[in-house]
Amino acid sequence: MNVIYPLKGIIPPLVTPLSDTDRLDVAGVEKLIEHVIAGGVHGLYILGTTGESPSLSHRLKKELIARTCRLVKRRIPVLVGVSDSSFAESIELSEIAAMEGATAVVITPSFYFLQGQSELLEYLQHIVPRMPLPVFYYNIPIYTKVALEPATAVQMAEIRQIVGIKDSSSNLAYFKQVQYLLKHRTDFSFLLGTEEYLGEFVLTGGHGGIPCGANLFPRLFVDLYHAAVNRDIDKIRALQDKIMYISTTIYSTGLHPSSFLKGLKGTLSLLGICSDAMAEPFTPFRAAERDKLKTFLQQLKVV
Amino acid sequence: MNVIYPLKGIIPPLVTPLSDTDRLDVAGVEKLIEHVIAGGVHGLYILGTTGESPSLSHRLKKELIARTCRLVKRRIPVLVGVSDSSFAESIELSEIAAMEGATAVVITPSFYFLQGQSELLEYLQHIVPRMPLPVFYYNIPIYTKVALEPATAVQMAEIRQIVGIKDSSSNLAYFKQVQYLLKHRTDFSFLLGTEEYLGEFVLTGGHGGIPCGANLFPRLFVDLYHAAVNRDIDKIRALQDKIMYISTTIYSTGLHPSSFLKGLKGTLSLLGICSDAMAEPFTPFRAAERDKLKTFLQQLKVV
Amino acid sequence: MNVIYPLKGIIPPLVTPLSDTDRLDVAGVEKLIEHVIAGGVHGLYILGTTGESPSLSHRLKKELIARTCRLVKRRIPVLVGVSDSSFAESIELSEIAAMEGATAVVITPSFYFLQGQSELLEYLQHIVPRMPLPVFYYNIPIYTKVALEPATAVQMAEIRQIVGIKDSSSNLAYFKQVQYLLKHRTDFSFLLGTEEYLGEFVLTGGHGGIPCGANLFPRLFVDLYHAAVNRDIDKIRALQDKIMYISTTIYSTGLHPSSFLKGLKGTLSLLGICSDAMAEPFTPFRAAERDKLKTFLQQLKVV
Amino acid sequence: MNVIYPLKGIIPPLVTPLSDTDRLDVAGVEKLIEHVIAGGVHGLYILGTTGESPSLSHRLKKELIARTCRLVKRRIPVLVGVSDSSFAESIELSEIAAMEGATAVVITPSFYFLQGQSELLEYLQHIVPRMPLPVFYYNIPIYTKVALEPATAVQMAEIRQIVGIKDSSSNLAYFKQVQYLLKHRTDFSFLLGTEEYLGEFVLTGGHGGIPCGANLFPRLFVDLYHAAVNRDIDKIRALQDKIMYISTTIYSTGLHPSSFLKGLKGTLSLLGICSDAMAEPFTPFRAAERDKLKTFLQQLKVV
User: What superfamily would CATH give domain C9-232?
Assistant: First the structure.
């Protein structure tokens, strides 16, 4: 597989199918991978936020990396999340990813302590060269508590091993500022973690997205990507409307910020793709919420 | 003047030209109004965040409402910000706005106390009917500390006197959710307070924007709006690129969140439109920052 | 009246008795003032957060200042909150306070915009000399969004007209740092806005407090103050226990952060001191919550 | 060793002496342990925030647990932090702690995702019974992003295996509310993570503290504890004054929130107790800051 940078297209952040809080749903992993590849996705990303990575044991993470790489068989790029609150654990995960044949790794800041911008920059300057693969930076301040400021992004981009950013800040003004300031890095990918405006983002120069909804409906997102590349605005609007339906129903079913994840896994289980088991601190939706998800799925057909 | 809802287009949030911390720069007000009208804007909005409204005395606010309405002479709609921490003061401002012939008023939540969603909704149910004009809701949680949640927006939209939302949350996913949930309100305007993705927003169904940069370069934003209505993607990208230049230079010159405002007023003064005097708690940029603004302005011509 | 600095003791932040959202409950104002003076308080503070100041019209604020000063007749010091998002309005309020014979004024930062520390310091350097009375600084970052950092407090204390701080940050480590750094200002009052640890605070060097519960039970807080001055630890513990009861019942009855205020006014009305009417954006508790307050009051007698 | 609940006294949260970002400074561990035991502390706590636990590799954590327990030889209780973003890893650490002879474990919420209160409660209900030791709950919302609300604390306290709370919220009003609501749990320890008001806290009913400064000056904190137990207010004030000096100098030397940790390790190295090496994402202070620490240490003698 010849990976061309900037990496482009739809790269689903896979959920981690579990049969138990600390056991992989092996059949689910395979089904899910084949489901998204059949949908035409341009890569896949395991062990991200959607993959509940911080909640998983190291043993299970290693198993998932190995199984995924072997199942994908280099048909598409595999990105592996290696974020950890511990520097040493992140490096070890990146080495396993390299050994198993992954394409690149994805890191956030170390996510317990509060870091100043200079500390974040130094952290990246220290950790990236220790990793044996290209690195994507993952900006998700709601969980990591530190946002990569535009000026820091400029300094970070001097590390040539960093080949892109996934932005889940929900702040498009911010992400466009970073993209504008880094336009000299022509090999650098700007990938969006927020699916509600993915079409618009690609239409005006974004490279693609890492939308969690592509676990459920990979073809929908691949079609959206192509519509954006082809500047088919009517199609973009129609597809984004479906995504807004998903966003305001499936992801908004429960009370807590974990809703999107519970809705995602619950719906995947209704679709017969994998179990809705979750790693602690979360638990699957109960019957009432599952019933809502069923109704949403039925209505989605006619949206 | 026959105002058609949903209100559409470019509606600059005017700065308040001051000759002193508590005195209107009367000549500046006139110049600024003629400058933006000459630029083809579709309305104007006074006494918003960009207008430093919370920093102004009641006396000065009243004077500005009166002067603006008389200068505009109904050539374009005039929206008047009437937010105040006090309910009674907001109502009084709305009455003055109506008396002077303004088109509509704009309100935020009362901005000192923390309000729950049910308290915010009740507040709107109480205050809106007391106002003699159509009302736009202004969502700017960074300053008001309360975000209008999508479910609350749905309930709010049952108040028919509310005819639109200006969103300055910087969260396009959120704003598209609200727009999706309110699509039955066909007279309702969705206006964007964030100019960095205004083209994309209009291209996929937004009604327009309230971009502070339109104080400086109204024609740029009017052109952007028309390019979006005409689906001219190359033009959108070229114009948004200029806006990204402005955003990453003029608005990013100082250290504090007030930078955008100081940069805006400083640049208006360099352009000869009005003084850069500010109301406390802010003060104009000093020489070093003003020199930077000069350089940015010169470079902007060749961007 | 000869006011000695540092000001010490119990200074209740009076609620503003209202008969309507924008009308003073004149009888209530008098009853409340006599109630707290009878309880032995060392001063009183009107137009603070507890006084719903930001929600009140300018007209009503002026009326309250005048009435309060005339009712108190210099028996005890009167502090007047003059915070406003507008510099000019704050100065005007301070002039009215001086004219009516108030002792000092209390200010927060301008509370809409976000201010950096240097902006906050400049604001104070500009506004304080314009005020005709001694000034207390009020630190309440939950509402103003800006915390006075210890290093800024040191610079602020060079303004000799500032004679104290009221801290409602709930962060005693912070307040003790500020007190430690300002120990050279021997005329400077450290007054606590949080009543749950007021006894401890006075015991180890604090000057007093501005506890909202002193509206209800002024004698309880005055006794606590004297117990602390006299180092009577058993008494402090017994009285703080009553305060903990109030804090975990009366102030914790509703769902929203406004609970303490609704509980306070509801209980004052049950005690026959003033109406429970509130200024928007808040409304009084409904019957269910009022019934809870009744039960809490009854149980308080046996706590 | 017979551990009596509620656990009381001074329990230093030990730094983790490192010779490298991922290597234990074995001699430093021993010196530090003997240093605090010689200072009279009532227990010690490893692998907390001060111990940089989230930054350490699993291998190193296990080594530290084993070495610490063997060095302490049951002279005093050993508390072991077992927080992790992963449930499974936390349980494994608790099993190792039990096997090595630790006294109890300390947990925070899983610290990447945002958890609602009901999710936090369920998490505790699931994880605590899986742990083979008594459990302390550690409230530190600045890092974990979730605060244990008083009502949730009441429900949590029904889990009898939980034997105490360490509070590092810096909010004494909150902690006293929790203590008031849990007074029926007579075996439950209330331990303070904030040293600036530790004397006051013990004086009015707190059980003790987990002050990071006790790494440096264990005797100072032990003396403070005894002064509080003996109600010696002059001594409390004198000792807290020293602590305020440390807090406003050693902990406040750098720019970022990591200052307290860099100041602590830098000072320990100046005292010859252990190296100042830190685990990523942090690095030791550079020469300029180290020189400041030296000066502070010299002045401390005369404070």
Answer: Aldolase class I (3.20.20.70)
Contact assessment for residue A267 and residue A248, using Cβ atoms and an 8 Å cutoff = no
The pLDDT of residue D302 is 66
The answer to whether the predicted template modeling score (pTM) of the entire model surpasses 0.95 is: yes
Going by beta carbons, is chain B in contact with chain C, meaning 3 or more pairs sit under 8 Å apart? yes
Angle at C39 between CA C35 and CA C45, to 5 degrees: 70
Residue of D nearest to A112 (CA): D143
| Interface touch B110/C21, C-beta < 8 Å | no
Nearest to C22, CA basis, from C58, C71, C70, C68: C58
Cβ C201–D199 below 8 Å, yes or no? no
How many beta carbons lie within 10 A of that of residue B186, not counting itself?
Answer: 8
Contact B203 A233 (CB under 8 A): yes
Count, in order, helices (H) and strands (E) of chain B.
12, 10
Choose, out of A18, A87, A115, the residue to mutate when testing the contact with D (most D CBs < 10 Å): A87
**D204/C244 Cβ within 8 A:** no
Q: Collect all residues of chain A within an 8 Å Cβ-Cβ radius of residue D143.
A: 112-114, 145
Contacts (Cβ under 8 Å, ≥6 apart) of A44: A11, A12, A14, A33, A36, A37, A68, A72, A76, A77, A78, A79
Asked whether the predicted pLDDT for residue B303 surpasses 90, the reply is no
Give the separation between CA A144 and CA B77, rounded to whole angstroms.
Answer: 44
The conformation of residue A212, written as its DSSP 8-state character, comes to G
Question: Residue D172: its chain C contacts at CB < 8 A?
Answer: 170, 172, 194, 196-197, 200
Can you tell me the ipTM of this complex?
Answer: 0.96
Assess C259–B contact: CB distance below 8 Å, yes or no: no
Q: Are C280 and B121 in contact (CB under 8 A)?
A: no
Question: Three-state SS string across C23-42, please?
Answer: EECHHHHHHHHHHHHHCCCC
| DSSP label of D154 | H
- For D202, phi and psi rounded to 5 degrees? -70, -40
* Mean pLDDT computed over C159-169: 98
Which partners does chain A have (≥3 C-beta pairs < 8 Å)?
B, D
Q: Is the peptide bond before A6 cis (omega within 30 degrees of 0)?
A: yes
Residues C115, B283: C-beta atoms closer than 8 Å: no
- Looking at residues A22-44, what average pLDDT do you find? 98
Cβ-defined contact of B86 to C21 (cutoff 8 Å)? no
Q: How far is B141 from chain C (nearest CA, A)?
A: 11
Q: Name which of B150, B171, B195 is nearest A248 (Cβ-Cβ).
A: B150
CB pair distance less than 8 Å for D204 and C171: no
Nearest C-alpha neighbor of C298 from the set C259, C264, C271: C271
C-alpha to C-alpha distance for D171 and A218, rounded to whole angstroms: 47
Q: Which residues, 6+ apart, have CB-to-CB distance to D252 below 8 Å?
A: C150, D259, D260, D263
| Domain edges within chain A | 9-232
Cα separation, C16 vs A98, whole angstroms: 67
What residue in B sits closest to A183 (Cα-Cα)?
B241
User: Which H/E stretch holds residue D71?
Assistant: helix D58-72
Helix-then-strand count for chain C, H and E: 12, 10
Count of B-C CB contacts under 8 Å: 144
DSSP letters spanning B196-210:
GGHHHHHHTT--EE-
What are the φ/ψ torsions at residue A264 (nearest 5 degrees)? -65, -50
Across the interface, whether the CB atoms of B115 and C60 are under 8 A apart is answered no
Report H helices in A104-232: 117-127, 141-144, 150-156, 172-181, 198-203, 218-229
pLDDT digit string (tens) for B62-100? 999 999 999 999 999 999 999 999 999 999 999 999 999
CA A93, A94, A96, A97 torsion-angle sign: positive
Residue A78 phi, psi (nearest 5): -115, 120
